[in-house]
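Researcher: Quick one. two chains, 654 residues in total.
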Amino acid sequence: MEFLRRLAADVQRRRGWILRGLVLLGVLTAMPRAVLPPLELGPALAVATRHPVLCTHTRLTDEVEAWKILHTLELVREMGATSIVEYFPWAYYAPGPDRYDFGQADLRITFAENQGLRVVARLGGIVPEWARPIGADGTHGSDTYLPEESYEAFAAFVGAFVAHFDGRLDAIIVWNEPNVALEWGFRRPDPEAYTQLVILAAERARAADPDIVVLGGALAPTLEPEGSDLALNDLVYLERMYAAGAATALDGLAVHAYGLGFPPEEPPAPDALNFRRVELVREVMARHGQGEAPIYVTEMGWNDSPRWTRAVRPGARIDYTIAAMAWAEAHWANVPAVCVWAFRYPAPQHSYGDYFTLVTPEFVRKPIYDALQAWAREGVVP
Amino acid sequence: MTRARQAVVLAAVLGVIAAAWLWSTGTGWLTPDRAWSRIQNERVLRVATDASYPPFSAIGPDGAVFGLDVDLARALGERLGVAVRIENITYDALLQAVASERVDLVISAFVGDLNQLDDAAYSDAYFVAGIRAVAPATDTVELDAQLPWVWARDRRLGVEYGSAGDVLTRQWSRRSSGIEAELYPTAAEALDGLVAGQVQAALVDAVTAYAFLGAQDGYRATGPTLEPEPYVVVTGARSLRLLSEVNRLLQEMEADGSLPALRERYLGQPGE
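Model:
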């Protein structure tokens, strides 16, 4: 007690200094952080290209600096791509139920428009903690876990996003690869549940903008059978989506078309994963009255890692990518965009994933970028 | 209360506050290493690897997982005196597997990412991947990593079209005149070009370089690994005891020659 009495007396004696310290702390805390001056955009530009089908999936989601966002989009335009797919995770924009902050999304959409690029917005992915119940392990669990009771909240986010961008989006994609457990909260994929989500999201999107194009989330190309805990065959999943009523909600589909080790002309087959698997997706759509609906190939490409078993040589990657674009133009109707995954990552992944990109995080253009640019802008085939 | 006793009480109070703070930050300093405890109790080390990356981890014709990473996992288990269970998990799910304690370690040609320290902790490197410059052994001029274009402009380079080596030479040619690169369809053909005397050096990925150097006399890797990518063993962020044991064993294996021998077995040369 004696010690505490002395401590109190010390505090009393030094209260002037303590007060001054607190004031200084308050001032330092309140001081504005050093910020870069805002970028001033020049006049709106247009894309010069001979192949408007060329598109790329940018990955600006975690890009912090505005100049890097703008420079990425400048390089996309200079390459001759007319559109981009960009990812907008729910958790980044919804700090609470019905509370939204679209600031970073505004930046990307505005910069893309300035560069003359159309934007396909991929919505979903990361579920905010407030929309995920705490599980038995005392945590909110996987950030891709979307419980059914939060479907309405996600649909509200989709509606708010579409309303906010009011006619400035080419299309929206509802979720991504729901046929793999990794993207579905590490649960067994459930096409009927996903279809329910799509129907709710589409309703909200159209209430906000009746003209918005709503695309089903692209399915991961996979041969996993029914009953697998990891994934479900994309064609089987799609059939079950249509059986559950997806056609009423969707204007078209987003599709992923990776070539893996095969050239783009490799014929499609139900038991093969290759670029032309898109044609099998089209057959499923046609069986359900959507044979003329648009397909956006929102991820495609080959990987040129020197070690990965599913990669090809860098030269083959260049040839295959351009041949795939040409194949899509020549043979596929109602495919407005074929988007190379991925344009650039904000930071290196230090894995085979880095060998999917066209430009390094440091903005070094890879030879495939130059080849695509020569093809798109001058018609040069390597 | 004397001043000395006051100081003791104050130190105790500060100690409790510091302990509470460390606990709340979740750094793991005061939390038990559950992975290590489980390994000790069950005598099994669970290791995840993505078996799509030879020669580090791949599936053989018999369906079994094999490779440098797999042998490294078995060696660590042997030295810990426990059995090893290998799980083949796709790369994208590896970190989740260790963060959720489904496995104890990830050994999968994995390069640590400082942005993932909430989920993972990384060991010392057991191999450094990247790009190696290969030149005739008679060429004694060493590539300087700070000024590689100075070395490069004196010799015609062979690179695989579109590869990381191709990107590097394009970057160097913006820094210096006189950089000449011959493009080949594959890295192996760039090395063939070197042997045939078409070029004076080749820039290829480290694994391809070591395989070549292990099979071909009269050539050497010059300078350090360019664009280095250190491969590490991954533990959960709070498995600090396990991490410390892994680091101790890696040092032990490096010192007794078993880790260089493992690299030589799969890569052709001990490498870095």
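The mean pLDDT of chain B is 91.
Researcher: Thanks, that's what I needed.
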